[in-house]
Amino acid sequence: MRQNPLELKAAERLYGATMPAKIDVIKNKILSENWFVLRNYTYHLTAKNGTVLRHKREVYDRGNGATLLLYNREKNSVVLTRQFRIATWVNGSNPGGELIEACAGLLDDDSPEDCIRKEAIEETGYAIGEVEKLFELFMSPGGVTELLYFFAAEYSDAQRENDGGGVEDEAIEVLEMTFPQAWQMVKDGRIKDGKTVMLLQHALLAGKLRLD
After folding, report:
1. Same domain, 146 and 41
2. Are residues 151 and 196 in the same domain?
3. What residues does the Nudix hydrolase domain cover (predicted)?
4. Where is the binding site for Mg(2+), in residues?
5. Among candidate residues 16, 36, 61, the one where a domain is terminated
6. 44-60 residue pLDDT tens
7. Which of 40, 116, 144, 165 could join 140 via S-S bond, C-beta 3.0 to 4.6 A?
């Protein structure tokens, strides 16, 4: 549907017109590339009023990723995972360091769809077919380049091909629970992973799962 030009102008007045930023990169220095790539950028950014701002920022490039909510309408259930996340432990607000989250992984050289199918069987043991793309979001745009692709897919017991658990140095626990149980975990803080909360909210709003 073509949007009304008057509506577009009103949106521009409220939010500002969308236009490419004018950036002049002065310095691009690699600080670390032991795991992913951490760079220090110094650049000039021209604001909409013409003012030139000098910024110095660190940017962590870890590639793009994909995440998936496995759900079963008949059982009103979801499959999530639990694993140790060092960054949450370093933060200090998650003493045990373990995080309950939806299946996810980095794309590497795969398409988002192929990536998440591979991650699903590696992490959860479920071999899924069709996946529904929901949306794609930057998760931490202040300093991380990653664009995350969100998917949902129905699962059944017949699709379980192995125990999951991840590969190589991963130690992933597979959790199947009812949707009301997962929702309660969000409310009481046991689930505090952003992508997982968004996927659970989508399942509720889209009518895929129910709270009763």
Report:
1. no
2. yes
3. 61-199
4. 104, 119, 123, 170
5. 61
6. 999 988 999 999 999 99
7. 144
